[in-house]
Specification:
The protein is an alpha/beta fold. The protein is built from 17 helices and 17 strands. The two termini are 39 Å apart.
Length: 584
């Protein structure tokens, strides 16, 4: 997964603000239980309790904030340096008395205390998932008001959990998928276990994140209470029942996802259909086995998407069909995609005035690349730029609206492929996502059967190319798929757990076997080369088809892999959205 400059800067700034040190990560043994850690303890005789201590609050008198740091949220943590949370509460929601130590407070919930539209019992609980590239989210080690001020001023309760990730494994502990989302679910369960002593509404827990964070909050939002996670939750001693023995839930009310890099099971295929089929350089250059591989992946994706049975808001079944040129660039699904692209461009024209300056990010810090900016004096100038290589946009000045004629022109102009063929499950296991599903020490793993099937069907042809290696063959995939993790689950189980469509689409066995969040806000930069347009489109369609009524989805023109918004500030917009779906 590519991480652009804004992702890196915002992620680093957030971690620094919470006193989180950026450290190097180790690797993991496949077959080693996640709870086998010198820093953790077993559930029998655990040194950790699920009980929240209401006598251990600290207080920021200058800003009227009560907070606690470093509360381990499970009884058998695999990584005590990660699996803890911090909680930040507006002072109005607690009634507190100073303890004899002179630094801490004993507090009870003040249900009548209010901030804006909320009270001590109705305040939403917001949880950031700041895990770019599916990395770990380190827990807070010191207090800072700056990073939580906007949320608390709006009346939110802010909870920052440490979450394991791709980069936090050690030589004796695997933190690969599904541990990141497992930890997130455990933190949610901890809050519900302690709801009698904590302010806020555990019926209104809202997750928010971008990129890999947006992916993991999407997975968590789709997979509430899924039995796929129960073996992992029990391994770390998560709260499965309350003090009276009643089952607890890890379902959440809402999800805010910017540019979620998700649906990894099919991402290789959609990337080549959406973008790769229009490229002819690098791994897609003629005469390479990967060029043939790209074409085969693109041809396989229409068969997959047609099986999903997606429907648009008018109830029309969405399918791809063969076309006179290109790979399956026809059919109702294709028309829907072009409608989404056209809407995005027209929203841009409606939201902005000209002259308009567009800045293109050059690359992440240290890349040596610089951002570039271009100012377009008029709409006509901008449309002419879009049509530089071919005419794919027509513009009606009387209505200030544009029409997009096809995918090829759009992709060539605005959304070029910046990842190699095998963009997610790499043929040499070199992609970031291969590390997300790592199975052993320095052993990233294959995880996508749809990709394996394409390789298996065509490897005799690929073998005729001089740049082919037998190590790229389907046997390598089968070998990885057969391995089991420390909880005894194979790759199919783990990949299903990290596939939101497994829970949302009737094409998968997990359909309607989870509690899906009832409020969704999804934003994506249409120019990003990090994943296909179809990734977020299919999530939004599947949610609506599932019966979720509140799905606020938009692709944002002229923006890439970032916290894309049509207008305004991402944090301000998020806070406003939370109030619109939780305000009493």
């Amino acid at each position: 997964m590519e991480i652009n400059r804004r992702t890196v800067i915002r992620g680093a700034a957030a971690m620094a603000a919470f006193g989180v040190a950026e450290g190097a990560a180790g690797t993991a043994f496949a077959g080693t239980s996640s709870s086998d850690s010198s820093s953790g303890t077993s559930s029998a005789g655990s040194a950790y309790s699920l009980e929240f201590d209401p006598a251990a609050w600290s207080y920021d008198s200058a800003n009227d904030v009560y907070y606690q740091l470093g509360k381990v949220y499970v009884t058998a943590p695999a990584a005590t340096d990660i699996e803890s949370l911090s909680i930040y509460v507006p002072g109005a929601y607690l009634t507190a008395t100073a303890n004899s130590d002179g630094t801490t407070y004993t507090a009870t919930v003040n249900p009548k205390g209010t901030v804006g539209a909320y009270s001590g019992r109705t305040a939403p609980i917001v949880i950031p998932v700041n895990t770019p590239g599916y990395a770990a989210q380190k827990p807070a080690t010191s207090y800072s008001y700056t990073s939580v001020s906007q949320y608390l001023a709006a009346g939110h309760i802010y909870v920052w959990p440490g979450l394991r990730g791709r980069d936090s494994s050690t030589s004796t502990r695997s933190d690969a998928a599904p541990w990141g989302v497992t930890d997130l679910k455990a933190a949610v369960r901890f809050l519900r276990y302690n709801r009698s002593v904590l302010p806020g509404s555990t019926d209104d827990i809202v997750l928010f994140g971008m990129s890999g964070g947006g992916a993991q909050d999407t997975v968590a939002g789709a997979s509430g209470d899924s039995p796929l996670y129960h073996p992992y939750l029990r391994t770390i001693g998560a709260a499965m029942e309350d003090a009276e023995g009643r089952p607890l839930s890890d379902a959440v009310a809402g999800v805010m996802a910017w540019c979620p890099i998700t649906s990894l099971h099919e991402a290789n295929l959609s990337y080549e259909w959406n973008m790769g089929q229009f490229a002819s350089t690098g791994t897609r250059a003629a005469g390479t086995w990967t060029s043939a591989y790209s074409a085969d992946l693109a041809k396989a994706w229409p068969r997959y998407v047609n099986r999903l049975g997606l429907r648009d808001e008018r109830g029309r079944r969405l399918k791809l069909t063969e076309s006179g040129s290109g790979t399956y660039l026809a059919g109702s699904y294709y028309d829907h995609l072009i409608e989404v692209i056209t809407t995005s461009l027209n929203n841009f024209l409606s939201d902005n005035t000209f002259p308009y300056t567009i800045t293109t990010m050059g690359g992440p810090p240290g890349s040596g690349q610089t951002d570039s900016s271009t100012t377009y004096e008029t709409v006509d100038d901008y449309i002419a730029y879009l049509n530089t290589n071919s005419t794919w946009v027509t513009y009606d000045a009387t209505t200030n609206t544009a029409t997009v004629s096809g995918l090829a022109g759009f992709v060539t102009s605005q959304k070029t492929a910046n990842k190699p063929v095998g963009a997610f499950d790499g043929y040499s296991r070199a992609q970031t996502e291969n590390g997300v599903f790592a199975m052993g020490l320095n052993a990233p793993a294959h995880f996508a059967p749809l990709t394996r099937d394409v390789v298996r069907a065509n490897e005799s042809t690929y073998a005729t190319y001089s740049d082919w290696s037998s190590g790229y063959g389907s046997a390598a995939y089968d070998s990885d798929f057969a391995l089991k993790d420390g909880v005894g689950k194979d790759m199919a189980w783990r990949a299903d757990a990290y596939n939101p469509l497994y829970f949302l689409s009737p094409a998968f066995a997990g359909h309607r076997r989870s509690q899906v969040a009832r409020h969704w806000r999804i934003r994506t930069g249409i120019m990003q080369g990090d994943t296909a347009n179809t990734t977020e489109i299919n999530i939004a369609l599947a949610l609506r088809n599932y019966g979720i009524r509140d799905v606020d989805f938009a692709t944002v023109w002229a923006q890439g892999h970032t916290e894309a918004e049509r207008t305004g500030d991402p944090t301000v917009n998020f806070i406003s959205w939370v109030e619109s779906v939780t305000g009493r």
